[in-house]
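Before the break, one more example. Copy the sequence into your notebook; we will annotate it together after we see the structure.
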Amino acid sequence: MTATAGEGYVAKADDGYRTRRGPIVEELAHSDGGQPTIQNEKRVLLDVHGAITFRWPTLRRNDCTMTEAEFTIFPDGRAVWWSHVTTSDADDVWLIRALAFIDVHGVELWRMPQFNGPNMVIDNYDYIFHNPNLAYPAYIFPHVRTINMTYHC
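Here is what the structure looks like once it is written out:
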């Protein structure tokens, strides 16, 4: 799987997550060059709603920084994006160009189209990038093990 503009991060799920109780956290190692990069990604099961949350490390692109990025998918097809974003040069926007839903065999099940963060008109200000109205085909929920994010700012 290749990433656009050299930027791609994945968060990976644990194969036995449906049989365990309580939060599961799995740390993943850095991947080889040429593959989507993994840097201390964590995957957490939220027992209350049966949702899966994928988290990414601090991301930097051009003048922009994204921290505490997380993407939660629910069994009914709802999805929520949340992160902090900043820029050192006003009037930037984070673009989540795609989120690819990957199964345990590395097969892409579905690709969420682009959605954008806030227009950061004030430099060095901590903006909240929140989109609670995302959706994906619910039937793929039990098969999703990895989310591959392609982004730009």
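Residues 4-146 form one domain. The radius of gyration is 15 Å. Try to locate both features in your own notes.
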